[in-house]
Amino acid sequence: MTLQDFSRSEYVSLTTYRKDGTPVATPVWAAADGDELYVWTRSDSWKVKRLRNNPRVLVTVCDVRGRIAEGAPSAEGEARLLDKDGTAGVRKVLARKYTWKFWMVDWPATAVRLGKRPHTGIAVTFRGA
């Protein structure tokens, strides 16, 4: 597995862990920049809450529905929640990768929320990287 395996994939399954250790996988957009993989999610999402308790994650290449093919690249890592400036940087990284798809999701949602962008950037660093 390399960071580029995840960067080339349109979706990755981000597995976070509940307090009792139960894994919860969610398909997300992700893009690499430098030696980290970046994800963007709603600030009030359960994954943000779980990451506040436990930064351990498992990232696996998947499809839009979160289905994982046999032998798909996978790696364990640690995630950290980013501040407002870090989240703005994640937006730029994702916009470069997903171009019009990203803006089709981000801008209408921002208009509905009257300019507010209640999202949090997540940076994943892989073990042994």
From TrEMBL:
Gene3D superfamilies: Electron Transport, Fmn-binding Protein, Chain A. Transmembrane segments: none annotated. InterPro entries: F420H2_bilvrd_red/Heme_oxyg, PPOX_F420-dep_Rv2061_put, Pyridox_Oxase_N, Split_barrel_FMN-bd. Signal peptide: none annotated. It comes from the Bacteria. Keywords: Oxidoreductase. The keyword Ribonucleoprotein does not apply. Residues 6-86 form the Pyridoxamine 5'-phosphate oxidase N-terminal domain. PANTHER family: HEME OXYGENASE HI_0854-RELATED, PYRIDOXAMINE 5'-PHOSPHATE OXIDASE FAMILY PROTEIN. This is PPOX class probable F420-dependent enzyme. It comes from Streptomyces clavifer. The lineage of its organism: Bacteria, Bacillati, Actinomycetota, Actinomycetes, Kitasatosporales.
